[in-house]
């Protein structure tokens, strides 16, 4: 299969911070809001260079979302920054009424999503945010896989009119993805014939590792990166499912309401094939190192590999 | 300043509109609507610098009003239409299928005059503070006005926004609380006491003014005073005492009219008490 050069190991959140800084230079309508997590969100450079366009709201996320809606009303392009948990669950109704229903051009940028937040544990490791934001009408949902993709996505959503939920994370991970990004368009990273692995966020790298291991067992896989979970790229899912005949999905999120169910929905309405889903099974997380957690909760490359073999068996049955 | 009697005549018609609107669909919130009619008339027909015939979302160099307690939509819709944002005849569609006049205000139907959805309480002050910051950033001299229910102040988000506005010297905002001391479940003091409202807002760093919200002359004078207080490094709060149901004798000062419409007989009685000054819709 195609080999991916790892340019560096870097956190996705730095991709957000670096792109926001560039956006600050390119577009004076871009403003940043942060609820006391400027360092964690890598918004420090933007804050320093554009102090008039940076708004520190304190630990008051509901007010931050509302303020962003007000700024968007005036024609600015607000980017809010806090952890994924405080970007969604804590402010669901503020996003719903003041942003999504009111069609405000607010970019909700969320770091520290999923298990790989690590040691802080379940209070901060939100695994339900994709489901919440997917359910919300008028919301675009993006989960990026590495530094480069997060950088490109941050730039892209500034040019996109409408509310966006941009989800990224804390740990340093391989930076490998191609230098291309289009909202709503999945990326076929590697081509195969026996199974389609459809992954999002940090699980994309795990999916590539799994596909490589799968080759040693005599099978090849399509590896698809779905970064935009809503609206999902139906064509890339259906084409790959038609070719391979079975699908494995992988996400750092609970199985309820996430990427797997989005893919299954597309397939069941158009081209039913066996689907295996990798994700957290109706559970909260816990403290630990990112990789330890992915292994404990069944989200490692080895788990994806097992799921691909099971999907292939089901296809043959 | 507009003629005081003319403003009172408009307010009387707005009150007729309110009771007719909620009666027509047997739903809606007449109590707070009637209580705030005078304030909204003063704001839209005298105080604000705005452009009803050419509504823009971003309101460049205009004053902006946000209704945070969205359930008093009948009063707002009446005032918006009577001041020229949309045809008065459209009031007849309130709360009906496919209407732009949703039960609670929304931007989804592109009703001129509305810039944010409201109804889920406690969110409007944050939105207003955000737009106030945007106006400051862009050198726009327009002022931001907001209205809140007193019960709404039980929402924590209000105090997040209050803290932010004072800490950041947001002095281009004039907020108003409808202090009628009533909410759905009963008197505010019984449901969850607000304590000393004036002291609370002062402690949060706001300049606080007080007025009788059902006295047009007082309203005009306090709003002028509030305007003069802007650009002095502090957000301004007007604690506005009103009577829920004001203008309809049997509705006055009774929390059961928060969200109940009048029946046919009650409507007839109410309309007898409210002069038709501008022509019913």
Structure overview:
- The complex is a heterodimer of chains A (317) and B (281).
- With 317 residues, chain A is of the alpha/beta class.
- Chain A has helices at 12-26, 44-49, 61-73, 84-87, 92-100, 129-135, 147-159, 203-215, 234-244, 259-270, 290-296, 301-316; strands spanning 8-11, 30-34, 54-56, 77-83, 107-111, 140-143, 164-167, 172-175, 187-190, 195-199, 221-225, 228-230, 247-254, 275-280.
- Chain A has two domains: 8-175, 3-Layer(aba) Sandwich (Rossmann fold); 187-316, Rossmann fold.
- Chain A has a seven-stranded mixed β-sheet with strand order 3-2-4-5-7-6-12, sandwiched between helices.
- In chain A, helix 7 links the parallel strand 6 (140-143) and strand 7.
- In chain A, helix 1 packs parallel to helix 7 (147-159), helix 8 crosses helix 12 and helix 9 (234-244) packs across helix 10 (259-270).
- Chain A starts with 7 loop residues before the first strand and ends with a helix.
- The mean pLDDT of chain A is 98.
- With 281 residues, chain B is an alpha/beta fold.
- Chain B has one domain: Thiamin diphosphate (ThDP)-binding fold, Pyr/PP domains (Rossmann fold, 3-Layer(aba) Sandwich), CATH 3.40.50.
- Chain B has nine helices and seven strands.
- In chain B, helix 2 packs across helix 8 (216-229).
- The longest helix of chain B has 22 residues, at 4-25.
- Chain A binds chain B through residues 31, 52-53, 55, 57-58, 60, 62-76, 78, 93-94, 96-98, 101-104, and chain B through 57-59, 106-108, 115-120, 122-135, 137-138, 140, 156-157, 160-161, 163-164, 167.
């Amino acid at each position: 299969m195609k080999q991916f050069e790892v340019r560096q190991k870097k956190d996705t959140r730095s991709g957000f911070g670096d792109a926001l800084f560039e956006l600050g230079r390119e577009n004076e309508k871009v403003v940043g809001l942060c609820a006391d997590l400027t360092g964690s969100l890598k918004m420090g450079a933007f804050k320093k260079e554009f102090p008039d366009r940076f708004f520190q709201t304190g630990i008051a996320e509901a007010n931050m979302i509302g303020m962003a809606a007000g700024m968007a009303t005036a024609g600015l392009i607000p980017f809010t920054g806090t952890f994924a948990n405080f970007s969604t669950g804590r402010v669901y109704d503020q996003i719903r009424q003041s942003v999504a229903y009111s069609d405000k051009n607010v970019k909700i940028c969320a770091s520290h999503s999923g298990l790989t937040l690590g040691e802080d544990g379940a209070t901060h490791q939100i695994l339900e945010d994709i489901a919440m934001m997917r359910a919300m009408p008028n919301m675009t949902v993006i989960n990026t896989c590495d530094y480069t993709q997060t950088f490109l996505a941050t730039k892209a959503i500034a040019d996109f009119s409408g509310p966006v939920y941009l989800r990224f994370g804390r740990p340093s991970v391989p930076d490998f993805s191609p230098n291309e990004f289009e909202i709503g368009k999945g990326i076929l990273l590697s081509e195969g014939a026996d199974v389609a692995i459809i992954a999002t966020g940090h699980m994309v790298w795990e999916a590539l590792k799994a596909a490589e291991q799968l080759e040693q067992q005599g099978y090849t896989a399509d590896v698809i990166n779905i970064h935009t979970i809503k609206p999902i790229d139906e064509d890339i899912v259906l084409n790959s499912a038609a070719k391979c005949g079975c699908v494995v999905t992988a996400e750092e999120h609970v199985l309820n309401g996430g990427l797997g169910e989005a893919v299954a929905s597309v397939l069941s309405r158009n081209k039913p094939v066996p689907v295996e889903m990798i994700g957290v099974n109706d559970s909260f997380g816990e403290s630990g190192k990112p990789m330890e957690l992915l292994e404990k909760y069944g989200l490692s490359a080895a788990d994806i590999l097992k799921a691909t073999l099971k999907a292939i068996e089901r296809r043959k049955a | 300043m507009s003629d005081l009697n003319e403003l009172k005549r408009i307010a009387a018609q707005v009150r007729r509109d309110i009771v007719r609107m909620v009666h027509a669909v047997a739903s809606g919130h007449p109590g707070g609507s009637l209580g705030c009619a005078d304030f909204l008339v003063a704001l839209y027909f005298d105080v604000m610098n705005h452009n009803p015939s050419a509504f823009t979302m971003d309101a460049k160099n205009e004053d902006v009003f946000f209704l945070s307690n969205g359930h008093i939509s009948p009063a707002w819709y009446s005032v918006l239409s009577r001041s020229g944002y949309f045809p008065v005849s459209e009031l007849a569609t309130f709360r009906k299928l496919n209407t732009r006049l949703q039960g609670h205000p929304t931007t989804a139907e592109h009703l001129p005059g509305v810039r944010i959805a409201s109804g889920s309480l406690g969110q409007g002050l944050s939105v207003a503070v955000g737009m106030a910051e945007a106006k400051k950033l862009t050198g726009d001299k327009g002022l931001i006005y907001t209205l809140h229910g007193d019960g709404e102040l039980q929402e924590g988000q209000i105090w997040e926004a209050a803290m932010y506005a004072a800490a950041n010297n947001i002095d281009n905002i004039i907020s108003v609380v409808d202090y009628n001391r009533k909410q759905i479940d009963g008197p505010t003091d019984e449901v969850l006491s607000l304590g000393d409202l004036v002291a609370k807002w002062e402690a949060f760093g706001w300049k606080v003014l007080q007025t009788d919200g059902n006295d047009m002359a007082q309203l005009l004078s306090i709003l002028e005073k509030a305007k003069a207080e802007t650009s002095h490094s502090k957000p301004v709060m007007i604690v506005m005492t009103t009577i829920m149901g004001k203008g309809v004798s049997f509705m006055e000062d009774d929390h059961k009219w928060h969200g109940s419409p009048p029946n046919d007989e009650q409507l007839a009685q109410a309309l007898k008490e409210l002069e038709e000054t501008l022509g019913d819709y």
